[in-house]
Design goal:
The protein is an alpha/beta fold and about 230 residues long. Helix content is about 30%, strand content about 20%. It folds into 2 domains: about 170 residues, Vaccinia Virus protein VP39 (Rossmann fold, 3-Layer(aba) Sandwich); about 40 residues, no CATH class. A 7-stranded mixed beta sheet has the order 3-2-1-4-5-7-6. Strand 4, helix 4 and strand 5 form a beta-alpha-beta unit.
């Protein structure tokens, strides 16, 4: 069962459920970006070269993309630049210095509401348009640990499970302290929290059946786009 869940949840596996959902998000993002004039300057907080290759914007003329991560990475295309930085502190960039600020499945990796709020405020400060995707805390299957309602369990229970089991993309931890560190490194957000963090933004729901799997926060775009 675990291997099957991993297969469905692996966005790198062509045809998987996660890959199909990601392709829909790519279509939405391409539609938004294609509607903008050129040149366009994009900051991708936590972004990778592979993401933009799959979107189809790596190497595209008139598009400058800055990839910000905690560790250095290669940026082999002429229109990509990699920088090292902190998602909650974008002080290296001036107000409104990017046409678009994007973040895909990153804000949930900031471990506290305070840091998540600072990341949201910084993205709003430096970008004129925002695109932020993040999983829904209340979706029945937690996407990192692949355990039902894992994000809603008490912290000590989550740590206990991870100390004794491999869960999703996370290996079992050798002791309670290590398990607690791993569990605390991910904090899924709710729709209400996102509305507070991004006031006035439009929040799209990515659904599987009746359940909201993830949210996409859109702000600053033409309301007719997307």
């Amino acid at each position: 069962m675990t291997a099957r869940l991993r297969g469905l949840a692996d966005s790198r596996r062509p045809g998987s459920l996660a890959d199909r959902l990601r392709q829909r998000r790519f279509e939405l993002l391409r539609g938004l970006l294609d509607a903008l004039g050129r040149p366009v300057r994009i900051l991708d907080v936590g972004g990778t070269t592979g993401f933009w290759e799959r979107v189809g914007y790596a190497g595209r003329d008139g598009v400058e993309i800055v990839l910000l991560n905690q560790i250095d990475q290669e940026a082999p295309h002429d229109n990509l630049t990699a920088v090292v930085g902190d998602a909650a502190d974008l002080s290296a960039f001036g107000d409104g210095s990017f046409d678009v600020v994007l973040s895909n499945s990153v804000i949930e990796h900031l471990p506290t509401p305070e840091l998540q709020g600072r990341m949201a405020a910084e993205m709003r400060r430096v970008g004129r348009c925002l695109y932020v995707q993040t999983p829904n805390r209340y979706f029945p299957l937690e996407p990192h640990f692949l355990f039902p309602f894992y994000a809603l369990l008490p912290l000590n229970v989550r740590a206990f499970l991870l100390q004794h089991l491999d869960l999703g993309w996370h290996l079992r931890q050798p002791n309670r302290a290590a398990a607690l560190r791993e569990v605390r490194s991910i904090r899924l957000m709710t729709g209400r929290e996102l509305r507070r963090a991004f006031p006035g933004a439009r929040i799209e729901r990515e659904r599987i059946l009746v359940f909201t799997k993830s949210f996409i926060v859109l702000d600053g775009w033409d309301p007719q786009e997307g």
